[in-house]
Structure formats: structure tokens, C-alpha cells
Amino acid sequence: MKPKFWFAIAGAAAVLALIIGLVTIFSTGTGPRGYVDKHFTRAAHLDLPGDSDNRAYTSPLAPSAVAFQISSKWRPQARYHDSTGIYLRYPDDAVVVQPHLRGSVVHVLDVDHAYRRYHSRLGGVWGWTSPHGESFRGRGPGAGK
What we know:
Blueprint: H1 3-28, H2 31-39, E1 41-42, E2 55-59, H3 63-73, E3 78-82, E4 85-89, E5 93-100, E6 103-110, H4 111-122
Antiparallel strand pairs: 1-2, 2-6, 3-4, 4-5, 5-6
């Protein structure tokens, strides 16, 4: 066989591998949002109002077991728990695991919406120091120095 044939076969295999890789990446989702979507039962009736990016899921497991399962796969930047639930913060998303019936409800929401909704509990814990989610730097000349 001629070398051109083998180059054509190698090129076709590379294109096929690229297509399969892209489909796998974009169909399964990445990060905690994709993980929760893949491993828990969607419960649209429990979505929090006011955020179209919010998604609610349920699990028969206790909140601590659910939070452990998620955080062992996707390590959060910050974690906080109290009697109302377990709060996991990621760069773009927040995962809130709360008791629900005999299991848990898992809310995956945008981190900014989580800040607005749960600031009274998490304001000082997750590193937010101002009422608008700003850090101590970057608020203008001389701020935070």
C-alpha cells in the first residue's frame, strides 16, 4: 500500500477521535454542575425562584453523604455547614445540600445568586466582605491597602 493511504487513514482516525472527544466533553458536562446532573434525580418543582440557572435535584441519602460524594469528586473552594444545610462554593457555581423529606435536596446555582440568597449565613465564611460580593481589593485607588 502507498504512504498516501496510511496518511488518509491516520487523518480520518484523528478526526474521528476529535469528534468523539468533543461529544464526550460537551454531553456529560464538567464540574460540579455536570456531576450533580448526572448522579442525582432532577426535581424542577424544587428549583429556587429568581434564578433561571438554578437547578434542584433530590437524593435518598443524608445531606452529609451527598456533600461528601460531590466534594470528593469536585473539591470546593470553600465549604460551610450549619443546621440548615451544607454549602459548597466553586469558581462559577455553588452547591447547597439541605435535608428534604427522608433524603436531601441539592441546589446548584450561580455563585453570585448564592451570594445574594445566603449572604446572611455565608458572608464572612466564603470570603465575601462587602454587601456586593466584592473582595477587599479592586474597589478603587487606595482601597484595601
